[in-house]
Amino acid sequence: MASEAVSMAANIAQLTGVDALGLITMIVEAAKAARRNKRTCLELARLVEQVGDLLRALQEQTGVTVMERPETSAPLRELQETLRRAHELVESCRRRGSYPRRLFAGKEQGESLREVQSKISIYLQLFPIICHIDGTRLLVRVIADGAAAARSPRPEDEEDEVLMSLTNRPNPQARFEKFSYSQLVHATNDFSLDSQLEQSTLATLYKGKLHGNDVTIKRLSLLTSGQRLPECMSENELFKNEIKILPELQHKNVAKLVGFCTERRERTTVYEFMQNGNFVDELIVAILQAFAGAATARSILDWPTRFRIIEGIAQGLAYLHNYSRVCIIHRDLKPSNILLDSDMNPKISNFELAEMLSSGTDEQKTDNVVGSIGFSAPEYMHKGIFSVKTDVYSFGVMVLEIISGKRWTQPNQTRFHKDLLTWVC
């Protein structure tokens, strides 16, 4: 019987977690039947019962694997070895034997029992420390998770941060004004048709006057434009993209941002006013008139003027690609996104679809292909690959329009989309 009990205890000692509780139960039962050192055995049984209560408390902590952690599993394994030794000793106190042998064994067992009892008392002192470590770990994790959640900005928080940086720049001349909705209403006569300059695919442009200066007010209007864009590109995303890119751009051939408005869910930007409108409104119409024999148009759009417009767009693109803080790919370069001032100097505008190339990369790929079909490079339209070449292709199409005096209209795109040179010639 004794050898079977020792064997059983050894087997249980190989187990972890809740199986240790079975070993404790066996110690308590054996202590009740002890023939020698019964008082010591019962005291030991009370100690291991306390150990059992603490083990159960640790295991009831949902989702916490205290037993498996290196800093706690090692002492718990040593505790199990001590329990195994305690069970062997208590079992030996149950066994019968001759009186002299029992007398000698009883003395020896008593010393061993007290030694095991002392070890178990030390382990009992470790349990509060283990619980404290685990509780502290849980608290740290909760705090860290909360801090991470706080650091993960919501889209609206990121937008607010960008807008605040625009109005709080150290250099007063580099700051952008935050206009109220009432200011824009007053500047455009309540966004009247008389003030409207253009209805584009992404926005409506109005002419207004703020602080005595003529300005262009761009009001995003995806819901009424019919423009099909990826779902991830909401008015908020387009607005945030433009105000994140434009303030960093300072070049004579890039449209200048003056301010913005976000009241009443408005996503409106304010720019310097361009007297000659956009490329479509002024330049292309004038070219057609010139080729039709209109003398006034020919005098305005002579070849030096056309060359200056081509050169200005090229310089603006070179700045975006090579000399701005980061490499910017416009992705929607076309005549309606080129504005002309009073001297017919071109300015690249409308950066809501632009992308910034990551540092050290020459090209990137996107699943959200946007832009105008007739002016977008084939590799971008078909594979989503964009680079500086994407804008260069669009620029080339516009140059062909300026030189040839022909419009790259939808019918022409359908007929000559594979051979631009055939269309031009």
TrEMBL record:
Q: Name one GO cellular component term.
A: plasma membrane
Family matches, as InterPro entries: Adaptor_Cbl_N_dom_sf, Kinase-like_dom_sf, MCAfunc, MLKL-like_MCAfunc, Prot_kinase_dom, Ser-Thr/Tyr_kinase_cat_dom, Ser/Thr_kinase_AS
Return any one Pfam family short name: MCAfunc
Domain called Protein kinase: residue spans = 191-425
**Protein EC:** 2.7.11.1
The protein's UniProt keywords, in alphabetical order, are:
ATP-binding, Kinase, Nucleotide-binding, Receptor, Serine/threonine-protein kinase, Transferase
State the reactions this protein catalyses: L-seryl-[protein] + ATP = O-phospho-L-seryl-[protein] + ADP + H(+); L-threonyl-[protein] + ATP = O-phospho-L-threonyl-[protein] + ADP + H(+)
Q: Please verify whether the record's keywords include DNA repair.
A: no
**Single annotated GO MF:** ATP binding
GO annotation (BP), single = cell surface receptor signaling pathway
Which PANTHER family does this one have?
Answer: PROTEIN KINASE DOMAIN-CONTAINING PROTEIN (PTHR27002:SF883), RECEPTOR-LIKE SERINE/THREONINE-PROTEIN KINASE SD1-8 (PTHR27002)
Protein name stated in the entry: non-specific serine/threonine protein kinase
Lineage, broadest ranks: Eukaryota, Viridiplantae, Streptophyta, Embryophyta, Tracheophyta
